[in-house]
Amino acid sequence: MRNLPLAGIQVLIIEEEFLIALDIGLIVEQAGGKSLSFRTFEEARNAKAHWPDYRIAIVNPPDGSISEAEIAREMQDAGIRLVICTADTGTNLAKLGLAVAPIVVKPFTADDLLAACAAALEVN
After folding, report:
1. What are the angstrom distances between the C-alpha of 37 and each of 12, 22, 123?
2. What is the Cα–Cα distance from 111 to 47, expressed in whole angstroms?
3. 10 Å Cβ neighbour count for 82?
4. DSSP notation for the chain
5. Starting from the edge strand earliest in sequence, which strands make up the sheet with 10-14, in order?
6. CB 3.0-4.6 Å disulfide test: which of 23, 74, 106, 110 passes with 87?
7. In whole angstroms, how far apart are CA 1 and each of 4, 6, 27, 94, 111?
């Protein structure tokens, strides 16, 4: 039987680039998870009523604006584990006021993304 590291886990995706969001969603689904994608943090906030269904959010790093960082903190406060997916190797989570979260640098492999998801699930 095939190993499905995200079996039964629902994942929010916040990614403005459609093809990257599609790729992330495919990786999640091939790993046994289910995904829901949004282009922006604000769109994800509008679906806040559904947040309790999700354990992980794979997101672009907040852009430094107060609202995006605030929404990311709200997600963490709601128990959603963040995985930051970025092309910027200098992303500073502490500067954004975020708790520890694995960072995956674009371009990434499926194994890289799944390892980051596994690490996020292990964060206390």
Report:
1. 6, 8, 23
2. 29
3. 27
4. ----TTTT-EEEEE-SSHHHHHHHHHHHHHTT-EEEEESSHHHHHHTGGGGGG-SEEEEPPP-S-HHHHHHHHHHHHTTPEEEEEES-TT--TGGGTPPP--EEESS--HHHHHHHHHHHHH--
5. 34-38, 10-14, 56-59, 81-86, 103-105
6. 106
7. 9, 14, 18, 40, 18
Tokens 């509008």 found at: 46
Beta bridge partners of 103: 84
Dihedrals φ, ψ of 102, to 5°? Answer: -65, 145
Residue indicated by tokens 């943090």: 41
* pLDDT, tens only, 8-38: 999 999 999 999 999 999 999 999 999 999 9
Cα of 12 vs its chain's centroid, Å: 6
Q: How far is CA 24 from CA 12, 14, 90, in A?
A: 10, 10, 22
- Report the DSSP beta bridge partners of residue 4: none
Q: Distance between CA 50 and CA 47 in Å, rounded?
A: 6
